[in-house]
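chain below, 408 aa
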Amino acid sequence: MKSLIAALGVVDWEAQFVSGLGHPMFGLQVQRRCVDGVDVRAAVQVADCQGVLVSDATPRINQDLIAELAENNIKLIAITSNAEYWEDLGATHCIDLDLSNPLSGIKQVSEIMRGETQVTEQSSEPNGLLIAVAGFGGACGRTTAVKELGWQLSKLGTRTCMIDADTYGPSLDQELGFEPNQNGLLELCRSIERKNSDIQTHFNLLPQVSENLSLVAGLPRVSRWTDLRVSTLRDVWKNSRDAFDVVITDVGAVLEVDHSLMHETSLPRRHAASLTALEVAKVTLLCARADSVGIARLVRGYLEFHEMFADSEVHVLLWGVTSESQSKDIRAAVSRHTGIESIFEAAYDFEATRKSLQSSTTVSHLEPKHAIAKEFEAIAKQIYQSVELQNKTPLRSKPMRSLFKRAA
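prediction:
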């Protein structure tokens, strides 16, 4: 077990970080918590330690102290937003501070102390676009929207992947006629956790719905949600956005704010797949039935969980609008109560949907001229144009402010 001295300074995540370091899985022990460099110098004289942990908020850390620690084979690890500053002081171990999730650095501290890594490289933001398809309550058309949108994007030549992140009732693979356990979400997570397998090979072996359209099936049994780890799921979304132009995920019907995701990334959470997908989604499509129950669920759910979509461009997809007057009234109601102006409409045709399910395909494939196919074709073309622009100008350099330029 490796011993550490923690001198993180006055930061609001210090106590949680120190507590996390003590988890048995990391093999670390915090010998002492110090307030500044002077305290650290005194502590290393009396405590047997192999590392000192500091941050940008740690006062009185200088080159002399860092050199002194190096002479005694004590690693100084800086959790920082300014690695260049610490490198100039002589620090050789810097971990990028993620302000949205500071505790993500715990694992990197453990790796450095075990000698598995020397310097943590800055990871580039993936170029792929993640679209989260969500809704409040069952039977709001999420899975159908994922299938239709994925099919239309693939026909345009966009490398697209559909991922079923519904941990309560996954059905995407069944609706498309695939056998369970075919390189699904659980297998993808295990591939990432093993670290000795080529993740790109896993993506290459995914079931192909059609040309340019891949599928990551949901859990084989809903009880297996306990095998999903928050940190691994975050890697899933990052790697999938590296491998594909567009990733479309069904985040399930049940949403719940889980603030503990920020504080503990090693434990399973029932809503982890949905919430981690929403964290990185650049676009969120909220599906709802165009009736009194569906609209009430949409408005109530959005107002209750709006913080989940704070970093995402939110659009609404209404299923089953039957007339122009109904369309006008529902649009006005949704915009008035949620503030969302971008609203799409899709016809609901029970017979066409039934045929597509029987054929294990999409309405767009069976009836390319159907109203459902035309609506999703229009949405897909707007996404395709944005992806083309994004490929020319990386998203991290020029953020997309508006994916959809108009409301359908």
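The longest strand covers residues 129-135. The longest helix spans residues 371-392.
thats it, cya
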